[in-house]
Amino acid sequence: MAVRKIALACSVCGSRNYTITENKNRTTRLEVNKFCKHCGKYTIHKETR
Ligand SMILES: [Zn+2]
Description:
Blueprint: E1 4-10, E2 16-22, E3 31-36, E4 41-48
Antiparallel strand pairs: 1-2, 1-4, 3-4
The site of zinc ion has 8 residues, from loops.
């Protein structure tokens, strides 16, 4: 049973601030509003491959 790790990168500065694990099949790309310490504010974070 494989568990994939996905990095969430800030869409503004590109920093990979968060990593999540995923074990379900998905078809849509993940977008989460999270706090970026580099930008100093909440930004959209997108998954990277
Ligand atoms: Zn940022």
